[in-house]
Amino acid sequence: MHVSSYDTVDQLPAAEWDALTIGGTIYSSSGFVGVRAEELPPGASARCLLARDERGAPTAGVEAYAFARPPHALYTPADLLVGLISDERHAHLGSRPMALGAGWSEFRGQLPGRDGVTAQERSAAVHALTAQTLGFARTAGASVLGYYYLPRAEALEVAAAHADDGAVLLYHDVETVVPVELWQDLDDYLAWLPAGRRPRARRERRDFERSGRTIREVSLPEVVKEIAPLNSALMRRHGHDYGEERAAAVYDRQGRHLGDRSTLLLAEDAGHPVGFALRYRHGDTLYARVAGFDYSVPNVADYFNLVFYHSIASGVGRTVRAIHLGLGTFQAKLARGAQPHPLYSVFVGVDRPLAADGNKVRERNRKEVEAFGAEYGRFVVGGLNTDDWLL
Known about the structure:
CATH architecture of the largest domain: 3-Layer(aba) Sandwich
Helix content: 25-40%
Pfam families: FemAB_like
Largest sheet: 12 strands, mixed
Order of helices and strands: EHHEEHHEHEHEHHEHHEEEHEHEH
CATH topology of the largest domain: Aminopeptidase
Protein name: GNAT family N-acetyltransferase
Structural class: alpha+beta
Strand order of the largest sheet: 1-2-3-4-5-12-6-11-10-9-8-7
CATH class of the largest domain: Alpha Beta
Organism: Streptomyces alanosinicus
Mean pLDDT: 94
Distance between the termini: 29 Å
């Protein structure tokens, strides 16, 4: 399996990259590769790798990045590996550069592949890509290589490819997905919900409609200036230093790279923007990327009306399989019908093996999985059995 390497997004053959649809998401698209390229911090480096078969056809791909320090608080290997590796190894890991495979933002990783390849071809491609990614990490002087927020199947593929390197496979987090393909309209959705939850959903929908607010669908580039203060308000409400100028720059960038894939729901009160939900369409899925609100006006379940009720009532389930909601806010999302899907991360020592304690890794995974089930399982429509989440 031959691997082609591209150091800049301008070199990347976008059509070939975007043709890798198996396991791909909007976050693996060439558009988001372009966004990440512009967001790289000073001193960081990037590489896109394409595994090609004997005919030269792309089979699978992976992004690789190197950083002097973690690019985000949720991409910090030392935090996840504490207690699983020796104190000396842990201290060394934290003092050296790090490398990330399968993306480094949006809290979702993937190794997208071509439809129709055999299991053997897929395995060969993943082995070739991970070997090249490890080589990239060595060149960067990294101490650890991490593949973050992978679905189970891809995490197992990566761990198997790095088996000789002493890969550490950890249950990490949970993403939630609204299965809108189950419902033709809001009545179908309400009938699907447990009887005890229907009154709240009806009330939240009714209160929004009585508020006089309207919702219109636009593309991101049309409304960057309008949504920047709303998103800034949400971020600052959650303790982030995130001004309107920064928000405008972020969504101008995404609009340039992904504007044709965007579908933004804008809530207005007498023509004044009071809330929004930005989504991207990729294949048969809508990815709910971010939201924002005007907190000077009453909240009438704006988020759930935009992301859940309006979308379902408009019949989006007739053309879309699911709405991907990402991480966090589990109780609220699950109680309204979102379904949980576990995500895993894989870590590999670059300069030397991590030498993690296998028993501690298994115990850590078991405790984390059981903790999620104990806290949130009762909110999952249909129930939750986390036994299948264990590795």
